[in-house]
Structures are given as C-alpha cells and as structure tokens.
Amino acid sequence: MSISSNRLLKRYNPSESLLQSKPFFLVPNLKRVHKYFYMKKILSIVLTFSVLSGFAQSPELIETVTKKGNEIVIPYQKYKLKNGLTVILTEDHSDPIAHVDVTYHVGSAREQIGKSGFAHFFEHMMFEGSDHVASGAHFKTVNGSGGTLNGTTNQDRTNYFETVPSNQLEKMLWLESDRMGFLLDAVTQKKFEIQRATVKNERGQNYDNRPYGLAFEAVSKALYPYGHPYSWLTIGYIEDLDNGNVNDLKKFFMRWYGPNNATLTIGGDIDIKQTLAWVEKYFGSIPPGPVVKPTQLPAPVLTNKRYASYIDNYAKQPLLFVAYPGVKMYDADIPAIDALTMILGQGANSLLYKNLVKSRKAVQANVFANSSELAGFIGMQILPYPGQTLAEMETLLQESFAEFERTGVSDDDLLRFKGNAESSFVNAISSISGKVSQLAESQTFKGDPNQIGRELAAIRRVSKEDIIRVFNQYIKGKPSVVLSILPKGSDVKPAATDNFTVARSNYTPPEYGYENLTYKKAVDKFDRNIEPPVGPNPSIKVPAFWQHDTGNGIKMIGAFNGEIPEVNILMSLKGGGLLAENAPDKAGLPTIVAQMLNEDTQTLTAEEVSSKLSVLGSRISITAGTEEINFNISSLTKNIDQTLILAEERLFRPKFTQESLDRIKKQTIQGMISSKAQPAYIASTVFNKVLYGVDNIRTYGLRGNEETINAITLADVQSFYDKYFSPDLTSVVLTGELNESAAKQKLAFLNSWTSKPATVSAPAPPQSNISPKTIYYVNIPNAAQSEIRLGYYTGVNYDATGLSYRMELANFSLGGGFDSRLNLDLREEKGWTYGAGSNFTAGKYGGQFAASAGVRASVTDSAALEFIKIMSRYRDNGITSSELTFLRSAIGQSDALAYETNEQKASFLYRIQKYSLQAGFIDKQNKILKTINKEEVDQLVKKYLDPEKMVMLIVGDKVHFLDSLKKSGYTLIELDTEGRQIP
Predict the structure, then answer these.
(1) Cα(555)–Cα(728) distance, rounded to whole angstroms?
(2) Total number of domains constituting the chain
(3) Rounded mean pLDDT of 98-125?
C-alpha cells in the first residue's frame, strides 16, 4: 500500500549511501517471482503460531503441527471460528515481539471489467478509520506503540499486518477486528477522494513515471484474453479509478471482506490461551459475509506468436520482454520450471549470461517464473547494448534454447538449484514475519499452512528429466508474447511488426455476487470504544557481543544467534567512493574495483565461483559504498568453511583481466544512461550537486561519470587494490550461529594478511554557494509526476548521543514517519503524493537535511510552496505537547523490534564498530529521549530547520509550475540533468 512506517532512528544500514552502478533491472511487480530465489524480497510479511484450546465457546482446533528432529517446518496450531474465520498461531519467544497478519482472499482477480484497481484502492481505505478507530488513528496507534505496519495487494489476496512489542498484541487485534466488522459507516466521500488521489499518485510514481514501468501491463494485455483478471495490473487503470464511486467501494467490502474469506495469523512472543481468548472476543461476533467460492479459469492459450510494442517516454534503451504461458501456484511442475529458469537465465552460470551478457551483446538478460493462483508465465527480459537490435536479441534467445537442447542439464545444475533452494527456505523463516507469511499464504491458497517441507521435498526430487520435460512442454516450439519497449524519439525497431490486438468479442462477464448485499455489524458484550490496555513492557535485551583486534590491525565484532543455521559476515575496507578525492579523473574506480573482485580469481573463473556458491547455498558479493568497500558473506552454518575458502580466494587472489574490465565499464556506462531516464534519480543526484557543487567529489566519486569510467585502466584497478586493500583499513562484523571462539578460528586466514601503511583522506567540503529563496528546476517534458527536494548541507557528523541524534528526534514530527506533518498534510489531507517525508543523514564527513516527495504534476507549484509553509510553521511554533508525547512513545518502544534478525544485529554491531561507540549508548539514547523537552526541540528546529536557508529543486514538466512560482518571490534557475545551469 502506502509508505511503510518503520522506525529508523536507532538502526543503521551499512549500505545506507551505496549507489549501485548496475543498470536498471526490471523486476516483476506481480505475485511472486521465482519463489525460491526471490522469496526473501517477495514475501509479504506475517507471522504466527501456537498451541491450545478449551474454554467456553472456544474456536475449533483443526490441527497441530510440531517440529520433529531437524526438519524444516514452522510449528503452528490452526483453529476455525464459528463465523468462518481461520486462525493460525505460532509461538516464538526468542524476541519480545508479536506479528499479526490478516489475509483476505481477494485481490485484483476479483475485480470487474471497468473497475480495475478496486482491491488495491480498498486496501488504502482500510487505513482510514472505522466506527471505533478515528481516521488516522490506526497508523498513529501502531507507530505510537513502537511498531510497524503496512498492507499489500496482489492479484489474488490482500493482507494487513503489524509488528509490535508483544505487550501491544491485544490492541492490534482490536484494531484489525474493528475494520473487519465496522468499516463502512466511517467511509466518507472525502476519504474516498483523497485515497483515490493517493492511489493515482502511486501509479504515477511506480508505473507511469519510470522507465519500463508499463512493461507488465503491456505483457498482461497480450498474454491473457480480454476480461481475464490477470490482463490488468493490481494498480488498475486511471480511468477506472476515476469512474468508480464510493458505493462501488462499499459493495466490494461487503462482498469480499467477511471473516469467512479471511485468515488471521498471529506469531511471536504470545500466550496461546490468552491470544485465543482475545481472538474470540474481538473477531467472534463479526457476522460472516457471502460465500466465496474458488475462481476457476482455463489457462491462457496462445495459438501463434504475438508481437506487441509500445513507446516508453523515459527509457533510454529498448527492452525485449518475452512471456510464455506457465503454471499456477503449487503446481507440481513449479520446482522443475524454477530449475529451468535458473539454467537459462539466472546468474553467471546461465546460458543467457554467457551468450548475451559476457559476450557484451546485452547489458542484462534474465529468465524468471511467475506463478499465481489462476495462471502463471515464464518471462525473459533482455536489455541490449546500443547497436544491437531487438530482433537480434530474440534470435539469440532462441539460439540459447537450442543450446540447452544440445547440452541438457548437468549434475552441477541440479546441485546449484537445490543448494540455493535450501538456503532460501532458511532465510525465508529467519524472522517471525517470514514464518507468518509462509503460513498465511499456504493457508489462503492451499487450505493447508504446512507446505514448506513439502515444497522443499519436491525441490529435492527434481531430476534432469523433469527439467527437460518442462522445457519441451512450456517453451520448445511454443508460441509466446514478444513485447518490444522502444525509447521515445529513437529509430529503434521492434523485434517484429505488431500482429496482435485485444479481441473483445465473445466475452461474458461472470456473476460477482454484488446484488442484494447487506451490511451487518457485530453485536458485542463489551464497549469497543475503549482502547484495550497494554501489558507490562517486555524485557528488551541488546545483543551481547564480543570484540577482538587481530595482530595485523583488523577490528572484529560479533554476536551469536542460534535461531537459524546461518552465518552472516560483513567485511569492510575504509575508503569507498571518497577515495576518488585522490584521483578525481578516475572517479568511480572503487566501484569498478569492487565489481572486478566479483569476477575471476587466479585459480577459478567467475562462473566456477558462482557455481560453487550456489551448490553451497551461499553468497559472496563485493560492493562499493561512499566510505567503504564491503564484502557481504552469508552461508548455512554447515557450509561456512567451504564458503570462507571462496571468500579468501576472492580477497587475496583476484585476477584482473582486460576482458572483465571492458565489460564492466560498458555495463556501468549503460547503467548511467538508464538512470538518467528516471526523474527520482535525477532529482537525487542533481540535488546533491546543488548542495555540494557540480564538481565536488561527493557527487560523483562513487559512481563516476562516462568520462572518468572510460579513463580507468587495468593498471588503475591493480594499483588501487595494492594500495588500499590492507588489514589496517579492515573491519569485520559477524552474526549468526558461531560463537567467538569458532568465529576467530574460521577467520584465522585473515591473520596472515600482511599489514601495510594505508590512509584515507577526508573529502573536500562543499563548493556550492547557495542563494536563499531560490528554486532550481530540471525540465522533464510530459512527466506524470514532479520530484521535489528541499534541504541543505548541515556539516554535522554522526554522533549516537550527540547533536545528530537530537536532530533526528527534532525532525521526527516534521517528516520522520507516516504520522509526520509533511506526510499527513501532502498525502492524507490533500492527496497530492504517495508519500512525503524528511530526514537528517550524517556520517564521518558531514551530513545533510532533505525533505522530499513525488507529487502529481498538476499540483507541483502548490506542493512546493506547501513544503515551505509546513516547515515554516514548525520553525515558528515548534513541536506540540502531543507530538512530543508521541515521539517518546514511538521511538522509545521500537527497540523491541530492532534486534530480531542477523541483519538487524549486524547493523547494530556495525554502528558500534564504525563510530567507536560504547556498549551502553542505547541506554544513553533512551535517557535523552525521555528527558528531551519542548524548549530543546524548538531550539533545534529554529536553528536547523529554517526553510529560508534551504535550497529547493523540482524535477518535472515546467509547464505545470514555472509561471506560478515566478510570482512567489523565489528566484528560479533552470539546470540540465547533470546539474549545470542552462543560460
């Protein structure tokens, strides 16, 4: 849905400022993509499980699943209420948190022709209040509890979820039950109009205003017959959203949002008996809705190859998208299809990588499988280099299929697929939200939550013959959709002349059951107007950790976590993009070096390393950040020794070749070209150039530009490695199933690394002279949205218990969360944006303040001035007492959620190590939070949040804002996409 509402103040992301130099990569925004390899990204979020029954009018216990031995299973109990609500409970006391998920078996596949987007639209409306929960109170209640929440909609289901400290569980059940049973009378025309505008902004931001954003919409139209609910995207069409009315929305709720069409999953630090009592109290009285029967539709059939194309206003390069009809969720062929897609087009060992990417014919080429409830497809995406045609890409794709027929499936292919799958399943259940998500999805679509073991067993049974069979059944000689995406204004030709138009004849709409619906409210024996009390605050334990300095200068820090059999290691070398200060004509060199380290070693090719890692289910990736180069290593505990052998090979014995350098440079430059087509990217990069100066190394040291990347030689790469890869600049963070003694033993190979002098100089200060009351703008003709940035360079360094932390607190009420002034005004009250916010960022070399939003093009001028009004009011009047109370509550309780996963623990340790923090700094932060008062916040706001001292940038179509903003008293200066002033 909406923007997420996570608490970030006390967490730190090691890759917070990393700018990836890889080209734009189109990822399906549909159901779930290649379940096993993308699972961590696609999983919604939910969790739950437990045990018990036996009280008056108790829910019926359907089944209990427990773990036996070392099997991969999520223990749970499943219940059914009399009104049809399915309840799944899973108990996990490892962290003091609870996760609640309500999944309704309704998505865009239940929508009518001409009323697309209603499922997603309704998801937004579910956050707008109900009979006993005021408008806006749902977010405020969860956030004020130190929790996070959101909702997501796809083709087949809609889910709503909260993660909170476990003492807040009853309140979450009260919230969710109230909107299930008491929503419609709180739905007003005003709320309807605001959220309709928000959804339209969301479509503009995520689809209409970005390169290739409409690719899946175009493929869906061509792949599925007219009227098939997968022939449009979940976001819907603008014209359908415009034509809908509030009564249509109410009918949608009454038809699909009954408890009998929902699954409630609860997991974490819960008491089963008490949780069931609360579930019965809050949900048991809600009347069931109309009967919902499974949708049954025939699989799409193509009788001939369908060529289609469209012109993309933002893309700088053409893209070929090929789609073959596939299979539904949980189909027996899914594991074999997933193995096939890996062999054809995923990773350095795939055929498409070898034939298109490594040969420098394509920037990127990938294959994926998408499986939804009613149908699925197998997709291929190829982004060619300039000079290569889309027709040639289609030919190379077919030649790669022919090669697969000749070479078949190797033993190594099977091992890679199965190793990756096991690791992915372990990662998927590393958090309580991941466990709940698995249970909820399996119950919703299979009627049985216990699927993870069965799916893994099916993967282990996949044979070479299975993979060959599905290739013959779904791809070989089969018709497909071939979509050509063409850059606007280019002379690029489609792969072939369009030969397909949507046939609208012979369509008979189904009976959706919208007639004679009645709204029935629950009759309770308690007063729902009384917000439930919270239990005692849970005991929050900051992770225990160990520290160690090796004799050659490496600093280590680690924490044991035995919840899953996995180890994560982050090894950082100081420097990163800021090292370009020493050689600005070679800016981007650290990024090139990092990518080269992912290539061949002196004894293994990149493909051999990739294959070995896949068999192990491990990952080693090297990336460059602004201040560091990072080695990210993850492995199942049982495979950590073999994984570290490969990490040692990459670190100590890289093989820098001219072939790899030429290919990486070419990819990097094409990535820059693609990025320049994205308004949000332009806004962020040009804004930095306005703050720091066009030629300041901070603005291009990490990524470089076409000139500096072209200038990098193989000797430069080797020299950088020889000079800066030193134990003196290295630190290690380790979390997972290794104690201190075992960690030191496993990492002993680092002790032989010879120490050598190496220093990193600080970057130059900003060179920009910013004039007050100035608006800079970049003109993007026909842009569907405008990107707005407002801020300045603060010069404040990170200090966990000093000024930078207090500045974050002062900003919280202005733009630090969903309930902030900026977001409530621009999104919730006016409907101008999908989300607005602001933040302070700080590191070792100064920081900046920035407020931002993507707004509807037609309101650009009003939104720009509204930013200034909101900030001015905050500066002049300061924080309110209610905002201060909310700040303390929201931030103060969020620590319960901060240390659950290996990644969260690593972020905590990384921050301690990087900034030499004392172990008790969290306690000091909590003391500051409790004692900070209005006077102190107001002083910080007046000093650091004065909009008169800030610069504004607008990236969008100037016809919507130029004339009116000229009358505002601001000076307007036009810039190009490189941040240079246009005369």
Answers:
(1) 9
(2) 4
(3) 94
d(CA 185, CA 783): 38
Angle subtended at Cα 873 by Cα 870 and Cα 875, rounded to the nearest 5 degrees: 110
- Phi/psi for 297 (5° steps) reads -135, 145
Last residue of a domain, one of 441, 469, 487: 487
Please answer whether residues 210 and 202 qualify as being in contact, where contact means their C-beta atoms are separated by less than 8 angstroms: no
d(CA 388, CA 327): 32
Residue 183: domain span: 44-283
Separation in Å, CA 416 to CA 340, 408, 483, 646, 876: 12, 15, 31, 16, 61
- 48 pLDDT band (50/70/90 cuts)? very low
Q: What is the pTM of this model?
A: 0.91
DSSP state of 526: S
* Residues 100 and 226 both lie in one domain: yes
Which residue is listed with tokens 């007219």? 226
Which of 533, 443, 521, 522 lies closest to 280, judged by CA? 522
Final residue of a domain: which of 249, 283, 317? 283
What residues contact residue 622 under an 8 Å CB cut-off, 6+ apart? Answer: 594, 595, 597, 598, 629, 630, 631, 632, 650
Closest CA to 701 of 797, 789, 629, 599: 629
- Tens of pLDDT along 856-894? 999 999 999 999 999 999 999 999 999 999 999 999 999
Does residue 677 sit in helix, strand or coil? coil
HEC letters along 129-190: CECCECCCHHHHHHHHCCCEEEEEECCCCEEEEEEEEHHHHHHHHHHHHHHHHCCHHHCCHH
H or E, element range at 221: helix 215-223
pLDDT of the residue at 1: 54
Q: What is the pLDDT of residue 26?
A: 45
Is residue 913 within 8 Å of 628, Cβ to Cβ?
A: no
What is the identity of the amino acid at 836? A
First to last CA, the chain: 42
Whole-angstrom distance, CA of residue 599 vs CA of residue 587: 21
User: What's the CATH number where 674 sits?
Assistant: 3.30.830.10
**31 in any annotated domain:** no
567 with 736: CB under 8 angstroms? yes
Task: Let me know whether 322 and 279 are in one domain.
Answer: no
Question: Quick one: 275 and 310 in the same domain?
Answer: no
Query: Is 854 found in the same domain as 731?
Result: no
Q: Is residue 341 domain-shared with residue 380, that is, in the same domain?
A: yes
Indicate whether 844 belongs to any domain. Answer: yes
- 440, part of any domain: no
Looking at this protein, which amino acid is placed at residue 462? V
Q: Are residues 713 and 829 in the same domain?
A: no
What whole-number distance in Å separates Cα of residue 516 and Cα of residue 143?
A: 39
Instruction: Give the angle 9-796-866 at the CA atoms, nearest 5°.
Output: 70
Structure tokens at 950: 């800030």
If asked whether residues 236 and 87 sit together in one domain, one would say yes
Over its C-alpha atoms, the chain yields an Rg (Å, rounded) of 28
Q: How far is CA 594 from CA 61, 573, 648, 717, 757, in A?
A: 54, 11, 15, 10, 21
Does position 940 have pLDDT exceeding 80, yes or no? yes
Residue 204 within any structural domain of the chain: yes
The phi-psi region of residue 518 (left if phi > 0; otherwise alpha if psi is between -120 and 50; otherwise beta) is beta
Q: Are residues 715 and 574 in the same domain?
A: yes
Phi and psi, residue 673, nearest 5°: -60, -45
The tens digit of pLDDT for each residue in 277-302 reads 999 999 999 999 999 999 888 888 99
Distance (Å, whole) CA 174 – CA 151: 17
Element (H, E) at 572: strand 566-574
- Helix/strand/coil percentages in the chain, nearest 5: 40, 20, 40
